[in-house]
Amino acid sequence: MTGPWRRAATVAMAAILLAASCGGGDDSQPGATATPSAPDSTAEPTAAPLAPPPAAAPELVIGRVLPETGSLAASLGGALIAGVELAVADINAQGGNVKLLAGDSATDPDVAPETVNRLLGEGAHVIIGAGASGVSQSFIQTLSDAQVPQCAASNTSPSFSTQANADFYFRTVTVAVGESQVMANSMASRGATNVAIANRADDYGASLAQLLADDLAELGVTSQTVTFDPGAPSFDATVAQILDMGVDAVGLIAFEEGIAITRRLIEMGVPSWAIHLTAGQFDFSMPERVNPTDPTVVDGLRVQSPSGSEEFNQRVFEETGGNAIYGGQAYDCAVILALAALAAGGVDGPTIIAAVPEITRRGQKCHSYGECAELVIQGIDIDYDGVSGPLEMDDVGDTTVGRYVLAEVRNGELEVIETVDVTIDQ
């Protein structure tokens, strides 16, 4: 192995001074600031049954298009689906009137549009999904044409912020700049000076790779990028390119294929503590999947992901067996859509989407569907702070405050070591 791999002292995330902006020379990209916070201090109250609001809510039919199968099913699918289902149960228990239709995106841009068309035919008024940015792109035009609101809980591509057909689209996760900020600071805190960024060849991979390179540069860390085909039969060539770069850390932007790449990197001598993964690979079974006979070979590897509050995550854990990433964001999608329908007085798509931004900013704070619905019915402007954080949505449907967890493999198990709130500069 040619790279100067060395063990650097680990600096606690609480001591990291996170950069005030990112995006390099691209003024179109928002910056981000992130401040570490203890899980207990940031948790919003988890929704609990309240008295029904004093008026009947319109029936809202939500169609969810999420990865039951495909390359994101293992890492994201369970928590996304559980988040939506918990939200629907809470909304209805608190006086709401929501019906849920289920559909599989299959993490496939050829399959997801067919699922969307089926759900619309079955009467869906709004859509939650898809899991991957590229998959959402495969049907966003359909929803724009049909004037059907779409909420994404895990789409981080910056493209949605500026494209014309995102007029009925919003999301409860920050753009990729939030994740890149957390990732860059974690890598720099461990002494990285020259990073190989390996990204899958799609919108998600390309945008996050550029943002990560810019954020690392802001911290004085150089980087080199290699792009790979996620459907390649082998990743030996990608790993060889990384080894030839002479770097001391690897940022791997991947989905399911990241397991094979991580395994090969370690087999070729890359220390596990020098590898940092992205949210598409946040899976509590990941260490065992990399090496079933000895998961401790992955010790020191880090991965970060958007998350919900600690209290809400515990609810999702009960449904998924331990994985909660993006679950809080999916929950908040459903609550915001239900509140928007209530504020709009019906299920008309243009009226719902017009109400969405105002529900999360500048009004009276509230933290559950029932609490917020009572205020809406009284004609009070609300500011919903969800289980995924304050949200504070802007006019194009991007949330400007996001919550992330940073995790590290210790003794063969992935453990959350820090919760970080990120604010996107507008």
Stretches with pLDDT under 50, minimum 5 residues: 1-54
Structural class: alpha/beta
Main sheet overview: 9 strands, mixed
Radius of gyration: 21 Å
Strand tally is: 16
DSSP strand (E) fraction?
15-25%
What is the helix tally?
Answer: 14
Based on CA inertia axes, which overall geometry fits?
globular
Distance linking N and C termini: 43 Å
**Overall residue-averaged pLDDT value:** 85
Description:
With 426 residues, the chain is of the alpha/beta class. Helix content is 35%, strand content 22%. It has 14 helices and 16 strands. Strands 1, 7, 8, 9, 10, 11, 14, 15 and 16 form a 9-stranded mixed beta sheet that branches. Strands 3-2-4-5-6 form a 5-stranded parallel beta sheet, with helices on both faces. Strand 15 (399-410) and strand 16 form a beta hairpin. Helix 2 crosses helix 11 (310-320), helix 6 packs across helix 7 (203-218) and helix 12 (327-344) packs parallel to helix 14. The radius of gyration is 21 Å and the shape is globular. Residues 1-54 have low confidence and may be disordered.
